[in-house]
């Protein structure tokens, strides 16, 4: 993202929000979805901070805020971009911070063309593939040969040619590219040309100014439905509360991420926070709020198809050797600690395969799976429907209810030979074959389904030991309170036993394909119940020395990890959690016995730092920007960095230090390079590589939108991941024939009283009583327009499905004027599902959703869709299918509808047809 460490670990600690002077919560209902963390927002307000909630709905978060700014869902880049423009045009940017700590002065290739030049597209776009070649986004760079001085910028013949650090980047084709560059971002030019005056039109600073010049208060009113007065309030609030003496914090959750432009929402906020000098400082940063305890942990040690532990990218098929792989993800010439990705990789391979991982076999690199493209959950879904997947494990998920396009999910399960469900209860994903909506509609018949479903009861969090990693990258140890009842097992016990059984079956195998399983280090100690010792797993993740006088001792820091096979560790960013053989995730020193950093409560990766990039909390000379916001500083007498937090910088690197020529890695960091995981040590206002949909965030409309893009002829994100199929139809956006059939927007959200897809709450009568029925929130104006009655029934119809919900008429939903029309937004909680096992059931909101993905991280667009709403209950049986079909036909929908990539009618570009094989299935 340019300023993030990994896949979204929050830059600050949650309790640091109490130090903010202004908090903007956008894309989150923090009070209801993160109630424990919200205490720090309340603390900040008690200290005098201003709280602003930007959200389509008035919620419990809004009730505590100083100001509610209603917004049309999906238009956030316009608002954030206009704030960037406001900061730049009013000269409110933190000049000394920006000049020293960002890439504002770096020169970009003269071949670069912006959205202003190409009606919404950047240079390098290939309409036949729907992908960008980022070559023209590169830095201009100094050459290390004898080229004359006037030849040191990119020439037309090598426009934007990659630097020596990225020439062999195997991750440049866009396939499964989201997060493929790991924690450190992509390699970039090691010596980019600069203009310290910031006047050259090719500087990042000038490009930024031009790019956001049309993002104005008037445009915010037009696109977002936000009044100019509300925009001015927000702009003044963040600028008056940023600078040397004050800091502003942003907080977001899936209200930002679940969009086809989600990663760029976050990028826009990062740019704004860098311009205001709020990164790496107390009360600043961007909080990536996590819904429950180990969502962050499940990306750190990932359950994602394209990542290895510690945000190491999964290898691609064409990277045949470990040297190919390491050369593709990092360069020894780039700055910062990501240059040591070779050490992190080798140490991981040693942890997994022990003595079987040796230099002569590439450290068992061939044992790793290889990517041949995107293999995420939605790609797997379409493969299931094509009978290309035989088996499916569902672990702590409920795709029959909780994933986009629920009908597709349930139909796909009927194509499997077998599936395993591990959960507390017989969730809908375990019972769809007998009581799902398609059984009632007649689309599926139980006796004709061949899928064999295995249900394994799971242990709850109080019935197992281990760590949670939460929003602020904090590992906290949970002690086992009671033993799981009956046949319930923890995930650790289940997979350990499964591994033992598979290895026993394969023990006599001579097939090379079985060696990765047989050579795994699988020797965890077990307790009296036969469960693996979770602490032993944590120790393996932490890592240990394998040779020398410290052989067998735990590593204490990721800086000790080596690339020569002398260390092992399961996740390099977690190194130190078990330093000195002490489980620091279990540290529990009470808050009143610590300072505000609370370094002895749990353990935060990396190295127990609570605020990332905290070198930026001091000025280039190493002095705190202000006494009020001091955090770490340079101690001239001791010749080291010190302070209240663990310095996120080489501790002996003095301010003013210039790295030696030819150096790389941590040694190449200058004394004013605080962003130690970036390839150039700077915060990226402009991303020369790494974001597959553009180096700067630009506003595109959602896949389904009630308005035309007011900024560009290009309507949606041209690189979004499409699934054009008959069972995944898209509503036409405004201005296209048939758009009037689905005239209203809907958005999904979470309730405090229910939990995710309901598997942990709808089976409990006490929680079910608090939120007993599926409902929809509508404004009084929409209710009057459509004849809806309070507590009556409504039917909502999208191009994918029709559901029913009880009507809640409330002024919390605000009609907005956008795109020259009144835009009504409908709120839908996503906790219900159809089945007979739960205490309460109801139609699932996610059945209405289509599947279109953000191209960077492959996340679905769950926060914006189009529908119709009408009074009364939905039809039953086959009549329900007939209703959905009648709407589709009336709108004239086909798989091509809404799936055009380039939407500028004046642009004559080839490749508008659907690629072969994407015609869809009936």
From TrEMBL:
<dbReference type="GO" id="GO:0043546">
    <property type="term" value="F:molybdopterin cofactor binding"/>
</dbReference>
<dbReference type="Pfam" id="PF01568">
    <property type="entry name" value="Molydop_binding"/>
</dbReference>
<keyword id="KW-0004">4Fe-4S</keyword>
<dbReference type="GO" id="GO:0051539">
    <property type="term" value="F:4 iron, 4 sulfur cluster binding"/>
</dbReference>
<protein>
    <submittedName>
        <fullName>Formate dehydrogenase</fullName>
    </submittedName>
</protein>
<feature type="region of interest" description="Disordered">
    <location>
        <begin position="142"/>
        <end position="199"/>
    </location>
</feature>
<keyword id="KW-0411">Iron-sulfur</keyword>
<keyword id="KW-0560">Oxidoreductase</keyword>
<dbReference type="GO" id="GO:0016491">
    <property type="term" value="F:oxidoreductase activity"/>
</dbReference>
<dbReference type="GO" id="GO:0030313">
    <property type="term" value="C:cell envelope"/>
</dbReference>
<dbReference type="Pfam" id="PF00384">
    <property type="entry name" value="Molybdopterin"/>
</dbReference>
<comment type="similarity">
    <text>Belongs to the prokaryotic molybdopterin-containing oxidoreductase family.</text>
</comment>
<feature type="domain" description="Molybdopterin oxidoreductase">
    <location>
        <begin position="11"/>
        <end position="424"/>
    </location>
</feature>
<feature type="region of interest" description="Disordered">
    <location>
        <begin position="890"/>
        <end position="922"/>
    </location>
</feature>
<dbReference type="InterPro" id="IPR006656">
    <property type="entry name" value="Mopterin_OxRdtase"/>
</dbReference>
<dbReference type="InterPro" id="IPR009010">
    <property type="entry name" value="Asp_de-COase-like_dom_sf"/>
</dbReference>
<feature type="compositionally biased region" description="Basic and acidic residues">
    <location>
        <begin position="142"/>
        <end position="157"/>
    </location>
</feature>
<dbReference type="InterPro" id="IPR006657">
    <property type="entry name" value="MoPterin_dinucl-bd_dom"/>
</dbReference>
<feature type="region of interest" description="Disordered">
    <location>
        <begin position="644"/>
        <end position="670"/>
    </location>
</feature>
<dbReference type="GO" id="GO:0009061">
    <property type="term" value="P:anaerobic respiration"/>
</dbReference>
<dbReference type="InterPro" id="IPR048158">
    <property type="entry name" value="Formate_DH_Act"/>
</dbReference>
<feature type="domain" description="Molybdopterin dinucleotide-binding">
    <location>
        <begin position="745"/>
        <end position="863"/>
    </location>
</feature>
<feature type="compositionally biased region" description="Basic and acidic residues">
    <location>
        <begin position="901"/>
        <end position="911"/>
    </location>
</feature>
<dbReference type="GO" id="GO:0009055">
    <property type="term" value="F:electron transfer activity"/>
</dbReference>
<keyword id="KW-0479">Metal-binding</keyword>
<keyword id="KW-0408">Iron</keyword>
<dbReference type="GO" id="GO:0030151">
    <property type="term" value="F:molybdenum ion binding"/>
</dbReference>
């Amino acid at each position: 993202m340019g300023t993030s460490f990994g896949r979204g670990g929050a830059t600050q600690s949650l309790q640091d929000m109490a130090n903010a002077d202004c908090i903007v919560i956008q894309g989150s209902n923090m009070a209801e979805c993160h109630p424990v963390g919200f205490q720090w927002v309340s603390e900040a307000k008690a200290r005098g901070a201003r709280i602003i909630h930007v959200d389509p709905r008035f919620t419990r978060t809004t009730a505590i805020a100083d100001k509610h700014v209603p917004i049309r869902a999906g238009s956030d880049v316009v608002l954030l971009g206009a704030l960037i423009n406001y900061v730049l045009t009013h000269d409110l940017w933190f000049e000394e911070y920006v000049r020293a700590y960002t890439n504002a002065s770096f020169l970009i290739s003269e071949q670069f063309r912006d959205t202003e030049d190409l009606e919404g597209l950047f240079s390098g776009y290939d309409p036949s593939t729907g992908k960008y070649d980022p070559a023209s986004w590169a830095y201009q760079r100094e050459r290390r040969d004898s080229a004359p001085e006037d030849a040191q910028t990119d020439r037309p013949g090598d426009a934007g040619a990659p630097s020596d650090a990225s020439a062999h980047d195997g991750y440049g084709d866009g396939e499964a590219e989201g997060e493929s560059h790991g924690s450190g971002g992509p390699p970039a030019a090691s010596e980019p040309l600069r203009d310290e005056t910031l006047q050259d039109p090719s500087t990042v600073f000038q490009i930024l100014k031009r790019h956001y010049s049309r993002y104005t208060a008037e445009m915010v009113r037009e696109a977002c439905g936000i009044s100019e007065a509300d925009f001015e309030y927000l702009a003044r609030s963040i600028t008056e509360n940023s600078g040397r003496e004050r800091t502003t914090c942003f907080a977001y959750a899936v209200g930002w991420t679940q969009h086809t432009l989600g990663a760029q929402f976050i990028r826009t906020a990062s740019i704004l926070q860098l311009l205001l000098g709020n990164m790496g400082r107390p009360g600043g940063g961007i909080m990536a709020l996590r819904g429950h305890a180990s969502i962050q942990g499940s990306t750190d040690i990932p359950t994602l198809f394209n990542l290895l532990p510690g945000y190491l990218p999964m290898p691609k098929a064409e990277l045949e050797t470990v040297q190919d792989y390491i050369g593709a993800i990092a360069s020894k010439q780039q700055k910062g600690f990501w240059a040591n990705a070779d050490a992190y990789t080798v140490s991981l391979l040693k942890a997994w395969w022990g003595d079987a991982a040796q230099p002569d076999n590439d450290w068992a690199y061939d044992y790793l799976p290889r990517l041949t493209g995107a293999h995420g959950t939605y790609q797997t879904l379409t493969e299931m429907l094509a009978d290309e997947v035989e088996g499916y494990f569902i672990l702590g998920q409920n795709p029959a209810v909780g994933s986009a396009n629920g009908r597709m999910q349930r139909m796909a399960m009927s194509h499997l030979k077998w599936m395993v469900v591990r959960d507390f209860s017989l969730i809908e994903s375990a019972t769809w074959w007998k009581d799902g909506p398609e059984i009632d509609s007649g689309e599926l018949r139980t006796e004709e389904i061949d899928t064999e479903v295995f249900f394994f009861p799971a242990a709850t969090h109080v019935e197992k030991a281990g760590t949670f990693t939460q929003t602020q990258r904090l590992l906290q140890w949970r002690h086992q309170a009671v033993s799981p009842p009956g046949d319930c097992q923890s995930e650790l016990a289940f997979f350990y036993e499964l591994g033992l059984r598979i290895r026993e079956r394969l023990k006599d195998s001579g097939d090379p394909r079985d060696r990765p399983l047989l050579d795994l280090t699988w020797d965890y100690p077990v307790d009296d119940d036969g469960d693996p010792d979770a602490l032993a797993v944590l120790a393996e993740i932490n890592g240990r020395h394998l040779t020398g006088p410290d052989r067998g001792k735990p590593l204490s820091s990721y800086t000790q990890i080596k690339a020569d096979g002398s260390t092992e560790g399961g996740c390099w960013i977690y190194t130190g959690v078990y330093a000195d053989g002490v489980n620091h995730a279990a540290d529990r020193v009470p808050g009143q016995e610590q300072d505000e950093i609370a370094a002895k409560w749990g353990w935060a990766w990396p190295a127990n730092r609570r605020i990332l990039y905290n070198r930026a909390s001091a000025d280039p000379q190493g002095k705190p920007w202000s006494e009020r916001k001091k955090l770490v500083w340079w101690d001239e007498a001791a010749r080291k960095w010190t302070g209240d937090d663990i310095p996120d910088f080489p501790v002996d690197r003095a301010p003013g230090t210039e790295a030696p020529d030819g150096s790389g890695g941590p040694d190449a960091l200058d004394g004013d390079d605080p962003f130690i995981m970036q390839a150039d040590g700077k915060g990226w206002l402009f991303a020369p590589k790494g974001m597959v949909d553009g180096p700067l965030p630009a506003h595109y409309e959602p896949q389904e939108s009630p308005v035309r893009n007011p900024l560009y002829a290009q309507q949606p994100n041209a690189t979004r991941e499409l699934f054009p199929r008959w069972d995944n139809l898209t509503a036409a956006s405004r201005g296209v024939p048939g758009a009037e059939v689905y005239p209203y927007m809907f958005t999904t959200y979470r309730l405090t009283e229910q939990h995710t897809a309901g598997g942990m709450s709808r089976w409990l009568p006490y929680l079910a009583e608090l939120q007993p029925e599926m409902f929809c929130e509508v404004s009084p104006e929409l209710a009057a327009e459509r004849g809806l009655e309070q507590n009556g029934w409504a039917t909502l119809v999208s191009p994918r499905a029709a559901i029913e919900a009880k009507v809640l008429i409330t002024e919390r939903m605000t009609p907005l004027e956008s795109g020259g029309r009144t835009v009504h937004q409908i709120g839908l909680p996503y906790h219900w599902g159809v089945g007979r096992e739960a205490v309460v059931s109801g139609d699932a909101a996610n059945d209405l959703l289509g599947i279109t993905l953000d191209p960077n991280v492959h996340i679905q667009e769950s926060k914006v869709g189009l529908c119709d709403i009408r009074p009364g209950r939905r039809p039953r049986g086959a009549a329900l299918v007939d209703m959905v079909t009648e709407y589709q036909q009336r709108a004239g929908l086909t798989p091509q509808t809404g799936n055009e990539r380039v939407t500028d009618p004046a642009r004559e570009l080839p490749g508008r047809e659907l690629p072969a094989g994407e015609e869809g299935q009936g």
